Amino acid sequence: MVSAVSQSDLNRLIAELAGLEIITDVAQVSKLSQDYYTYSPLLQDALADKRGDIVVKVTSEAEVLRVAKACVNHRVPLTVRGAGTGNYGQCVPLAGGVILDVSGMQQVKWVKPGIACVEPGAKLAAIDKQTRESGWEIRMAPSTYRKATIGGFIGGGSGGIGSITYGQLRDRGNLLALRVVTMEAEPQVVELRGDDVYKVAHAWGTNGIITELEIPLAPAYAWAEAIVAFNDFMTSARFGQALGNSDGILKKMVCICADPLPTYFAALKSSIPAGSHVALVLVAECSLEPFAELVKEFGGEVCYQKLAQEASKGITLVEYSWNHTTLHARSVDPTLTYLQTLFPDDPELKVLEHLYDHYGDEVMMHLEFIRVGGSVRPVGLQVVRYTTGDRLQEIMDYHESVNAYIFNPHTYILEEGGRKTVDIQHLRFKERVDPLGLLNPGKMKAWLERRS
Question: FRET partner for 288 with CA separation of 20 to 30 A, picked from 21, 65, 66, 315?
């Protein structure tokens, strides 16, 4: 890859940032220029040669302001990075420049009942460790919970463990406030509250550098883990729907994996009967008795169960859910890839059943139940036996033809992966705070079309 940054501009930038931690070693810069886009064979081809020129590691908002000013002065692109656990190339620089590593900004500044103020590099597990001391926990988290940073999750994520109760990050109330550094000639700190936070949330760092967040918390429960085995996939799916709809049962995760996906879970295989379709669940210990009654109603078998204290040690079921399901499958067969699908609001799961029958093992069903607009429904992170790009597109097109909406995980363009529409407030905010288009360039379609 040929960087868009000249060596002379880079040298002047480095000189201006004297005193900050700067990484120039090619191998380290290459490593910190990547995320888990390798899940997608299409993104592997598109992003394999994309690298930053240097990495600047910051530990404070004041240092972020210094880096932003220097990048504007020398017209150097800047791409923000947390832990690099995204899947779509969110933190992969397309035009070289500076990788701004904010993982050193780790403070949990304060915790109050139901709310916490944190820096963007704080890991989700570390936030929970501190908030649980007062009986609270973060509302939702990805399966990369141990490694992921809160800034990266807000900037590039959408939901996760906990979404069965609290919906998605974009739902009003799931993010309370942000502090953002701009990329102007004289960078400013802008505070966003209320609905204004969505000017920056899930914008992949294309229109502001998050330096502080206020996030809502949930009451912390003792979460037990269980695996329920079923002989029939649709029974397991209907069990998941019923558990999601059981308002009296406290739950945090309802993950359904069709056979043969459980065969990829090496550490769990001995606990799961051969040929089973399984539900991986987190249920509050105080709800285990009614949970057992629901399992009995659907003819399932609890083949694995741990109370919260035991479940907190070692690998948890969280690390077999959401994107980790694909991770485990790919660790056995690297040719596998995945989809992201929102199924229709259909209590009878007719579309889901049709697609399961239609594709068989070519598209292995993996469901996560979440709350969408007040009702519980499944989203799919199906694991796909990849053959060609054309075939993958055919599969996605067919899903949408039967009203199973695809959130395309095989593109690095912000608007093409999600709702497939331009978010005008993202664009307007970028015009205001990043007039030169230096933040994570090439990712926002609306900006590219505006400039063309």
Answer: 315
pLDDT in tens, the chain (452 residues): 556 788 998 999 999 999 999 999 999 999 999 999 999 999 999 999 999 999 999 999 999 999 999 999 999 999 999 999 999 999 999 999 999 999 999 999 999 999 999 999 999 999 999 999 999 999 999 999 999 999 999 999 999 999 999 999 999 999 999 999 999 999 999 999 999 999 999 999 999 999 999 999 999 999 999 999 999 999 999 999 999 999 999 999 999 999 999 999 999 999 999 999 999 999 999 999 999 999 999 999 999 999 999 998 888 999 999 999 999 999 999 999 999 999 999 999 999 999 999 999 999 999 999 999 999 999 999 999 999 999 999 999 999 999 999 999 999 999 988 666 778 999 999 999 999 999 999 999 999 988 55
376, 164 in Cβ contact below 8 A? Answer: yes
The whole-model pTM stands at: 0.95
Architecture in CATH of 108-219+422-451: 2-Layer Sandwich (3.30)
The CATH number assigned to the domain with range 7-101 reads 3.30.43.10
Q: Which residues neighbour 226 within 8 Å (Cβ) at sequence distance 6 or greater? A: 279, 280, 281, 283, 291, 302, 304, 305, 306
The domain limits of the chain are 7-101, 108-219+422-451, 223-406
| CATH number listed for the domain at residues 223-406 | 3.40.462.40
Residue with token string 């970028």: 430
For the sheet with 363-364, list strands across it.
336-338, 383-385, 363-364
